[in-house]
Every structure is written in structure tokens, then in C-alpha cells.
Amino acid sequence: MGVRLTMLVVPLAVLTACTSAVAGEEASPADQCDRLAAGPDDPHRRADPVEVDRIEIPAALQACESAVAVDPDNPRLNYQYGRALFAAGRELEARRAWRHSTIFDYEAALFDLAHYYMTTSRLKSLRATEIYSLFFRAADRGHPAAAYAVGQAHEEGYGTYQSEVAAARWYAQAVAGGNVPAMRRLAVMYRDGGGVRPDTNRAIDLFEQAAATGDADSMNALGWMYLNETTAGPDPSKSLIWFERARASADAAGLYQLGRVHYLGAVGRDELDLAFKLWQQAAAQGSADAEHDLGIAYLEDGRIPRDEALARRHLTAAARLGSDRAMERLGRMYEDGIGGPADARTASQWYRMAAEGGNVEAMVRIGGLYERAAGVPRDETKAGYWYRRAAGKGHAAAQVALARLLVSGRGLPRDERLAFTWLSIAAGLGHAVAAAEAADLGARLAPEDKRQAETAANAWLGKLRGQAR
Q1: pLDDT of 359-380, one tens digit each?
Q2: Which of 44, 40, 36 has the alpha carbon at shortest distance from 67?
Q3: Buried b vs exposed e over 316-355: b needs ≥16 C-beta within 10 Å?
Q4: Residue 332 and residue 22: Cα distance in Å, rounded?
Q5: How far apart are CA 8 and CA 224, in angstroms?
Q6: From residue 460, how far is each of 80, 300, 302, 440 by CA, in Å?
Q7: pLDDT at position 254, please?
Q8: What does the angle CA 63 – CA 67 – CA 70 come to, to the nearest 5 degrees?
Q9: What is the pLDDT of residue 1?
């Protein structure tokens, strides 16, 4: 009996001691950093991934900073510290932490640093070669998303030589790592024959791999392929299945894109109605593009009854969601009295918002209102400002309007040589009136002034054509 009692007491004592020890232990800063800031694209992570917008910033910063202080050359901890810093808006320090991690060729840090540069407009053009190098180093170590980025770089000739063959090779590597965008892009190449020999069955296989992950764009592509492009001929029943799956899986942006595909390819009223239904669903989820396209359809699509009031309602909704295209079109509707009474003042407000958002057509139109004193006080200086902005973006009509102000000296200092430059550029872009006005003005210029203006115009047009290639 005593022996039995001893056997019972000893295990209980041991269990109590072990439980107390576990309860008393605290996770190390490195473990906490792993738990709070592990990245989803990091193959070396030691905890479940945390999206950057869900990082608990104060706790992650404290844990990762402490962990890096103990182990300053640990690439995983430096990478995660960079993620915490980035989440906190401390981008310069985040880049510094990632750069330290890239010394050790840490794939996730290489990728995130390249992606940061790529998505920062002021750095994208300046660092093309460096961005490609970072992506390449990560891809070369087996990072699937980086392999996809390298493929894109080769397809576009960004930071490296342009080659669809090289792009397809890198996409294939990304596909092997499970990268869904690469599956979709390589499928398109097999379907259309870019960089690889056309292979409809391989294209379908890749689209189906992507669709199995829930990718609505691939489901939609399969719908079209089974409708038109399979080696065995059309299969409408399979096509319908994939279209329905795509619609069920899509978010607002996906619903909009699906609607656009059906709208552009509509051959009957049923498909047109489906496009409108998809756009209406997308609009209900806050898609500015869907609201915009519904508005334009009610104005311009001859297959449905024109409804100006409904068009204005959809375009207003799109404009309030930030669509500069909708703002510009609303301005025209208010200026011309379409869908309601003409109202130049309201038109000017929509034009100004669109122009400030970068809409080139709106820049020309608000400039015209200032020049004509329509809905706003006459202000030819402001007209010249907006014409100049649009002219610099290649809008031929704005270039002509700006040249006329420069010739007359209204709102801007009189400058016939500069006016001739802008008229020559507009003529080079195919503006017929500009060619005639340039000829008249050129006849009045001193030969040297005309030569300098023509040189400037040719350089500008050359640069524009180079950007278009």
C-alpha cells in the first residue's frame, strides 16, 4: 500500500513541477518576432504568416528590435523587423533592415525590397536595373513570386533584355512553385503563341491549375476557351460551368472584368443582359469602373434604349467613388445639358476635380471654360496653365489652344517661336488645323527661330514615339 502511494505522489509532483516551468517560461524576442511579423512569401518563416496590414505594430516593433539587437546578422529577423517598420510607416528604416538581410541573399527581403522600389513611382524608372537584379537574385534561389517578376521584366524589357522566350521560362519556374499569376500568364502565352509554341491543351491545363486556387480570371478564360478554342471544338456546357464559377468567385473588380468580357463579346441580348447584371453586382460592391461603364452604355450603346438620366446617375456614383473619367464625362453632360438642365458652373467643378486627378481631356475642357468665361470668371492665365499641362501630355487640341494664347499674348507672355513649336508638335500628331496654322506662323518667323522651334518639336515628338514603343 505504501509503495502504491509513493508511485502516485511522485508523478504528481513531477507533473506539477513541469507545468510550473512551462507556465513560467516567456517566449524569446526572436520567437515573438516570428509570431508577430512572419511574411507570407518567406520560405524560411517559423510561424504562421501575418499580412502587413494586420501586424500588431507596437508589439512587433519591440519584439523584432530586441531580437535583432541580440542577433544583428540574422537575415530572417532583419527581414521581419523591416516588415514591422514598414507597417509603422517608417519606410527608410524598413529599407535599411531589408538591405541588411539581402547581404545574405535572403529571398523574401530581396523580393520585398524590389517590390517596394517597383511600386514607388519616383524610384521605378531610376532603379530598373537594380530592381531586376533583386528579383533575379530571389528567383535564382527559388522564390516563386520573384520568378514571376523576372518573367514580367523580360516580357516588358524592364531592367533587362526583352524576350518572350526568357519570360516563358521564368513563368514556368514560378508555376512550379505554385505562383498563380504565372499560371495565368503562361496559359495566355500557350494559348496565343507568345514565347512558346501554341498549345491549347497546355493552356487549358494551366488555367485549370489557377482556377483550382479560386482565380476568377482563369475561370473566365476557361469559359471563353471552351466556347471557342478547344482542340475538340466548342463545348458550351463546360463553358457555362466555368463562367458560373467565375461569377461566384469574383469580387467587385472581378465582377467588373467579367462583365466587360461579356459586354465586349456580346453577340445577343442574353449576353448583353448578363454583362449589365455583372456590372450592377460590381457597382453594388463599390466598383467605380462598373458605375462608369453602365453610365456610358446608357449614353452610347445603340443596342439599348438611351437613358440620359440613368447615365447621369451612374456617372455621378462613379465620380463620387473617385473615377476621373466619370468626372470628365459628367462635366460634359452638365455643360451640354444632357440628362438635365445645362449648368456650366457645375460642369467646371467636375472638370476641375477630374483635371486635378490627372484627366487630360478635363484639363482641356476646364481651360476652355476659363478662356470663354463659361461657369467661371474669364481667366486666360488659368486657361493657359491647364492647356500647358494637357499639351505636355500629348493632347494635340490643347497644344493648338496653347499656341493661340502664345501668339496673341492673352494670359501668357507673347512667344511666337514657342507657339510655332507647339503647332508643329500638334501637326506631327495629326491635327489638320495645326498644320495650316504652323505654316502661316512659320512664314513670319526668322529662319533661325523657325529652325530652333522645329528642332524642339522633332525632339519632343521623337521622345513621345519612343515612349509609345
Answers
A1: 999 999 999 999 999 999 999 9
A2: 36
A3: bbbbebebbbbbbbbbbbbbeebbeeeebebbbbbbbbbb
A4: 71
A5: 72
A6: 46, 35, 40, 21
A7: 76
A8: 145
A9: 33
